[in-house]
């Protein structure tokens, strides 16, 4: 069993790392060293933002069949996307209807409200020979093509740090002397425009589930943050029958001083509906065309396989045993009619 425990000290972070070393004589010793500057941004957000949050955590299992099918079929249709891109778009779409989850607190009871979702996510890079964690962001993910979101994600992971605007800005911020940072960063709690520079995301997403963590509870460096667990095959009951489905756990951590339990639950439910529909009703025309192309390719493959079986005498059809066309299960979301007819937006307006 694996787990992650995050704690904030009332005395704050000292910037000193203490590590234990095992000597050949089997006695224990310690040494001290400075924390790498590229990690200071993360520690500052924990110290000055997360520690003052009143976090509550909601857990939900998502049926990932439609998510995987969407990614696979778009790839077959010529648009290679990732599950992370689908998640960022789905959450951004849902947040438009729950903008309190995008706000953040200011001192003296004030709230800074934002009306445009900005998807945030952690980026692990090596800078000057040291491991660093950055906070990437993508604006207006709800209106972008999935392939464009996937390309932006890839740029954060592959391009030179100095060529990516957000990463370059955070690298400069990490070089500011420690004493000055203790003045600048707290200003982000009082001045919205400073907060927008330090961490503009309206929600955050971390995918530590890739390391096998079943439940990921992340600290609230934003009002809303999502921990994504691994996509695993599990037995579930579907229409009274036990089936093996791909299930993905999501943990939603939210600052309860901004967003109450009921609002948070409705937000998470909308995200679940959008994901399990395969983003039905929210795909662009070019994406629907890619899905149609994938369906056509699959239909051709199925027809060829059926013809081969018929030529080999493995499949006989007559009046008493008519042949029925086979349709792979993953094509259930490919139809344009299905995409338009099952969208959460249409269901709400019905």
Short overview:
With about 350 residues, the protein is an alpha+beta fold. The protein has one domain: Chloramphenicol Acetyltransferase (2-Layer Sandwich).
Task: Give the oligomer, counting copies of the same chain as homo and different chains as hetero.
Answer: single chain
Strand percentage lies at 15-25%
CATH architecture: 2-Layer Sandwich
Low-confidence stretches: 1-25, 326-337, 340-350
CATH topology: Chloramphenicol Acetyltransferase
What is the CA–CA distance across the termini? 45 Å
Structure overview:
It is a single chain. The protein is of the alpha+beta class and 350 residues long. The protein has one domain: Chloramphenicol acetyltransferase-like domain (Chloramphenicol Acetyltransferase), CATH 3.30.559.10. 37% of the residues lie in helices and 22% in strands. It contains eleven helices and eleven strands. The strands form three sheets. Strands 3, 6, 7, 8, 9, 10 and 11 form a seven-stranded mixed beta sheet that branches. The protein has a two-stranded antiparallel ribbon with strand order 1-2. A hairpin with a 2-residue loop joins strand 10 and strand 11. Helix 3 packs across helix 4 and helix 3 crosses helix 8. The longest helix has 27 residues. The chain starts with 15 loop residues before the first strand and ends with a helix. The N terminus and C terminus are likely disordered.
């Amino acid at each position: 069993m694996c787990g992650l425990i995050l704690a904030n000290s009332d005395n704050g972070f000292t910037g000193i790392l203490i590590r234990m070393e095992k000597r050949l004589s089997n006695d224990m010793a310690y040494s001290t060293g400075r924390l790498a500057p590229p990690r200071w941004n993360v520690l500052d957000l924990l110290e000055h933002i997360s520690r003052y949050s009143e976090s509550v955590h909601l857990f939900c299992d998502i049926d990932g069949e439609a998510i995987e099918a969407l990614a696979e079929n778009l790839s077959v249709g010529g648009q290679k996307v990732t599950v992370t891109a689908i998640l960022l778009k789905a959450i951004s779409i849902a947040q438009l209807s729950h903008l309190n989850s995008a706000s953040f607190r200011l001192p003296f009871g004030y709230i800074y409200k934002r009306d445009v979702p900005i998807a945030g996510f952690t980026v692990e890079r090596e800078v000057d020979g040291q491991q660093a964690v950055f906070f990437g962001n993508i604006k207006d993910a709800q209106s972008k093509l999935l392939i464009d979101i996937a390309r932006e994600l890839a740029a954060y992971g592959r391009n030179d740090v100095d060529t990516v605007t957000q990463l370059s800005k955070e690298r400069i911020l990490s070089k500011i002397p420690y004493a000055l940072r203790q003045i600048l960063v707290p200003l982000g709690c009082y001045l919205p425009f400073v907060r927008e520079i330090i961490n503009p995301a309206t929600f955050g997403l971390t995918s530590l589930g890739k390391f096998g963590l079943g439940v990921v509870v992340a600290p609230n460096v934003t009002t809303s943050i999502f921990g994504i667990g691994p996509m695993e095959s599990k037995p579930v009951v579907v229409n009274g029958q036990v089936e093996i489905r791909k299930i993905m756990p999501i943990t939603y951590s939210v600052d309860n001083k901004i967003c109450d339990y009921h609002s948070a639950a409705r937000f998470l439910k909308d995200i679940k509906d959008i994901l399990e529909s395969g983003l039905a009703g929210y795909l662009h025309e070019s994406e629907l065309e890619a899905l149609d192309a994938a369906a056509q390719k699959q239909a051709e493959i199925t027809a060829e396989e059926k013809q081969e079986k018929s030529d080999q005498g493995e499949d006989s059809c007559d009046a008493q045993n008519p042949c029925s066309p086979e349709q792979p299960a993953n094509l259930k979301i490919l139809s344009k009619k299905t995409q338009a007819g099952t969208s959460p937006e249409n269901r709400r307006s019905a």
